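Open question from group meeting: does this chain pack into something compact, or does most of it stay loose? Before anyone orders reagents, we agreed to write out a predicted structure and look at it together. Recording both the input and the output here so the notebook holds the full record.
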Amino acid sequence: MAGQRARDGPACLDLFCGIGGLTIGLEQAGIRSVGGIDHWADAQATFEHNLAPLRCMLADVTKLSVSDVGQFFKAPAAEIDIVTGGPPCQGFSTVGKRDSADPRNSLWTAFRDVVAAIRPAYVIIENVEGLVVMEKGKVRDAILASFGEIGYRMDCRLLRAADYGVPQLRKRTVFLGWLDGLAPVEFPSPVREAHVSVGDAIFDLPPLEASETADRYLAPAETAYQRARRKDTCVLTNHEAAHHSAGLVEVMSHVPDGGNRKSIPDRLQPKSGFHNSYARLASWKPAVAVTSNMRKPSSARATHPTQNRGLTVREGLRLQSFDDDFVVLGARTSQYLQVGNAVPPLLGAAIGAAVLKAYRANALEGLRAARAGSGRYIQRNLTLFDCADGPCPSAAGR
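Structure tokens returned:
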């Protein structure tokens, strides 16, 4: 039928998917997932444990072929409407020393090459806050220009997780792209409700001393956020406190809710650390940021607001907006790293809703025509991809 709109949910492939936070959020918004691709076996195990029957392909994106993707997911390129991902760019991070020569920073070009071969209707890139200002904006501009060369219009903004229901002030750089001729994406507007605080998010979880573990709830959920995360979960997982020495526990006992190391007596002052080391999260505010160091009081404002210890993996998951039925696998250090690197699902859901709205604004013939178009970049680089199922960029036969 002429002018028929794309009302069905589009299909998405998540590159650099990690444990699946963005995939979960997009599915909550109504975008169907094909699966994920990552290079880290621990993340793959956690992804598949929680998102089954979805699968995570363990692969190096710089060596990825589109035919391999099609065979693994049983989904040819023409059936993938959205490609999304967060290429690791640790050199862009605002934490620690920025290094523009960090080889991980170039992984976005591998992401772009996969997009060029699949030619999805829409593209989502999520990355660290520091990417926007890296080299005075030259990195951001290079990404926008590079995607323009392969036929995509693209916009970039900083989104604060707390503005979308996540109890965390962390900002992320988000690029949203669409093929020439398709409806543009409008970035999601912040929710009008008040920010969710740390206390709102985690204070129903059982209290723990250092090294203690809890596997069941001891109190009912008290806030809407807590109830939403619990759902009907009966068994509490990943709630185990790190081991802290008696001396460290004594040091932390002097720091009040939301306080910092200035409250520690001179005789107990740690001899190292930053100005915000040994600072507690404020129970009445969102967390500053959830990182892989959340178990360490010596890290930047990562200590529980009222208990003398770092955060548990479960508390980190709560502050990232994962539900309590989500289980992180692997060794403890790996668990913290997996959670710290994750995209908050509620942020992903807000982004997904915006992309889905734009996708459905297109006529089906418009989607087909846009995806069937070929660009000079694609023609130059077809040898990078084994398009055994037919022309990679084509959406014919949808």
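Observations to bring back to the group:
Strands lie at 11-15, 32-38, 56-58, 82-85, 122-128, 152-160, 171-179.
The chain is about 30% helix and 10% strand.
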